[in-house]
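User: Good morning. I'm curious how heme C would be positioned relative to this chain. Could you predict the structure with it bound?
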Amino acid sequence: MVGSKLCAPLTLSLGVAALVAMLAPAPYASAADPNAFNRLMTPPSKRNPPPTEDGIHDPKSTGTQGLQTPREAFDPLPKAQSGNYIDWVKSFDEQKIQPRFDRNDPKAKPVIMDLTIVREVKGSMPDVVFPHKQHTEWLDCSNCHPALFVPQKGANQMSMASIMLGESCGVCHGKVAFPVADCRRCHNQAKGKPAPTKTSAVSKGKK
Ligand code: HEC
Ligand code: HEC
Ligand code: HEC
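Assistant: Good morning! Here's the predicted structure, ligand included:
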C-alpha cells in the first residue's frame, strides 16, 4: 500500500510516457562503441588525441593549441598494433625520421653497435632476442650500462614479472618504447635455433 501511495503523485507528474521510459532498461552509453570500456582497446578515432585533449598539456594555454597534432605528425609513418600505433624502428630504418642524438648538438652521431643477445626462455615462449643495433640507434651505452644491465651476456637476472613491474626492459618498454603486450617483438626466436650472437661490430657515425 505504501508503494502505491508513493507512486501515484509520481505517475501524475511525470506522465505515462516518462514512466515507461524510466522503467525500460537504460541504453548503454557505449552501445555505439563496444570497446570504450577497455582502455587497452582504444578505438582508432580516440588514438593519439590532439594536445588539447591528451590530458598532458594545459588545454587553456594558447601554446598547446599551436602544437602540431600527433595524428598529423604520425600520418606518414609506418603503423604498429599497439603503443602509440607507430613502428618507430621501421620509421627510423626507412629514414622517415632522423632523431637528434644529442639535444644540444645537431651534428652528433650515435655509436651504433650491431650485437644481438639471445636470452633463452624457460617454458613454451620463443626465446628473447635483444638487438643492440635498434637500441643504440636511439640510446647511449650509458642509458643501460652499468646501472640497468651489467654488460656481460647472461649476467643479469630478467623475468617477465620484473618487466611488468617496470624494471629491466620494462624501464622503457611500456613507457617510451613499444609496450609489453607486443610479446612477439621480444620473443621472436624459435627454440633450439643456433644463436646469431656474434661479433660486436661497433661503428661510429654509421647511419
Ligand atoms: C637498451 C639497453 C642497452 C644499451 C643502450 C646498450 N646495451 Fe649492451 N647490453 C644490454 C643487455 C640487455 C645486454 C645483455 C645482458 C645479459 O644477457 O645479461 C647487453 C650486453 C652487452 C655486452 C656483453 C656482450 C657479451 O657477449 O657478453 C657488451 C660488451 C655491451 N652490452 C656493450 C654495449 C655498448 C658498447 C653499448 C653502446 C654502444 C651498449 N652495450 C648499449 C643492454 C644495452
Ligand atoms: C633504455 C630504454 C630501453 C631498455 C632498457 C630496453 N629497450 Fe628495447 N627499445 C627501446 C627503444 C627506444 C626502442 C626503439 C623504439 C621502439 O621500438 O619503441 C627499442 C626497441 C626494441 C626492439 C626492436 C623491435 C624491432 O622492431 O626491431 C626489441 C626487440 C627490444 N627493444 C627488446 C628489448 C629487450 C628484450 C629489453 C631488455 C633486455 C629492452 N628492449 C630494453 C628502449 C629500451
Ligand atoms: C620488452 C621485451 C619483452 C616483451 C614485450 C615480452 N617479454 Fe617475456 N620476457 C622478456 C625477457 C627479457 C624475459 C627473461 C628471459 C630470461 O630469462 O633471460 C622474458 C621471459 C618471459 C617468460 C618466462 C618466464 C619468466 O617470467 O621469466 C614468459 C612465459 C614470457 N616472457 C611471456 C611473455 C608474454 C606472454 C608476453 C606478452 C604479453 C611477453 N613475455 C612480452 C622480454 C619480453
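The beta strands are 111-114, 116-119, 127-131, 187-189, 201-204. The longest strand covers residues 127-131.
Let me know if you'd like a different ligand tried.
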